[in-house]
């Protein structure tokens, strides 16, 4: 599963875009200095996310939307089209 697919699944599970969850995190005082454990606990408790989907959001919250280019342009299971994740929802993602 690609990193973007994880974020798409987060949106499907929660009804919120990754950007909306990022905004919620910032409203709670969560930022790049926050460790994964409290972020995962919040995402599980309030949004029902498991560890895998939660860790995708931890990356976005603590590191931003850029990912390693290791799988960009490959044909493997974990391939991503870009090294920048789209946070504003599946419906608005450019083709």
The major pleated sheet works out as: none
Task: Please state the CA-atom Rg, rounded to the nearest Å.
Answer: 13 Å
What would you call the quaternary organization?
A: single chain
Strand-residue proportion = under 5%
What is the average of the pLDDT values?
95
Topology:
Blueprint: H1 3-14, H2 18-27, H3 36-47, H4 51-63
Helix pairs in contact: 1-4, 3-4
Report on the architecture of this protein.
The chain has 95 residues and is mainly alpha-helical. The chain has a domain at 3-68. Helices cover 49% and strands 0% of the residues. It is built from 4 helices and no strands. The protein has helices spanning 3-14, 18-27, 36-47, 51-63. It is globular. The protein starts with a helix and ends in a 32-residue tail after the last helix. 22% of the residues are buried.
Provide a short characterization of the protein structure.
The protein has helices at residues 3-14, 18-27, 36-47, 51-63. It is mainly alpha-helical and 95 residues long. Helix 1 (3-14) packs across helix 4 and helix 3 packs across helix 4 (51-63).
Keywords:
95 residues; mainly alpha; 4 helices; globular
């Amino acid at each position: 599963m690609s990193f973007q697919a994880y974020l798409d699944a987060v949106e499907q599970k929660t009804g919120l875009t990754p950007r909306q969850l990022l905004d919620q995190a910032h409203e709670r005082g969560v930022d790049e200095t926050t460790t994964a454990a409290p972020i995962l606990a919040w995402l599980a408790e309030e949004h029902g996310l498991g560890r895998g989907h939660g860790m995708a959001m931890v990356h976005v919250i603590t590191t931003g939307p850029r990912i390693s280019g290791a799988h960009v342009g490959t044909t493997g299971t974990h391939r991503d089209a870009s090294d920048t994740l789209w946070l504003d929802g599946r419906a608005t993602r450019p083709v």
